[in-house]
Amino acid sequence: MSLCILAAGKTVTLTVAAFTLAWTHSMEKTHWQEDWKVTPSGLEIAEARIEGSGAGMEPPDGSVLRDGWWVYKPNLAPQRRLVLAASGATGEGWTLCTVQGCRELGKAAGDTTVLKPCEG
After folding, report:
1. How many CA atoms lie within 13 Å of 23's alpha carbon, on the beta-carbon side?
2. Residues 16-39: tens digit of each pLDDT
3. What is the spatial distance between Cα 49 and Cα 70, in angstroms, rounded to a whole number?
4. Quick check: 39 and 117 in contact, CB under 8 A?
5. Selected residue with higher pLDDT from 107 and 14
6. Residue among 34, 26, 60 nearest 115 (CA)
7. Long-range CB contact pairs, 69-73, < 8 A, 24+
8. Which of 49, 58, 92, 100 has the most CB atoms around its CB within 10 Å?
């Protein structure tokens, strides 16, 4: 499978089966991470982690505290695409990591990035 990243009118294709999406909460300045799989039915979330809690980001029921992170499995159907919008409030964008390495997406306020399985 391949992941297509659409940003600033360009498309980047990564040949990967999975990726981790990470970001910093703009109010609490805590870290969030999500592990995703690229499948024929869409992007499927495998696990999510929150470093801390507060300001509307309480860990959901069933979360387990592991090494300072609240870990849980979101109940979410496969997604056709993920739309990431940067607030500009943290001084950083989203971090997308794969077996090929990490890259920052959407650092400037208003930057929009779309992640989706590549067609064909």
Report:
1. 17
2. 999 999 988 766 677 889 999 999
3. 5
4. yes
5. 14
6. 34
7. 69/33, 71/47, 72/47, 72/48, 73/45, 73/46, 73/47, 73/48
8. 49
* Residue 76 in tokens: 């979410």
pLDDT in tens, 47-73: 999 987 666 667 888 999 999 899 999
Picking from 32, 37, 4, 5, the residue whose alpha carbon sits closest to that of residue 105 is 5
- Six-digit token pair at 16? 């990967």
- The secondary structure of residue 37, as a DSSP letter, is E
User: Which DSSP string corresponds to 67-97?
Assistant: TTEEEE----PPBS-EEEE--SSSS--EEEE
Q: Residue 103: CB partners within 8 Å, gap ≥ 6?
A: 95, 96
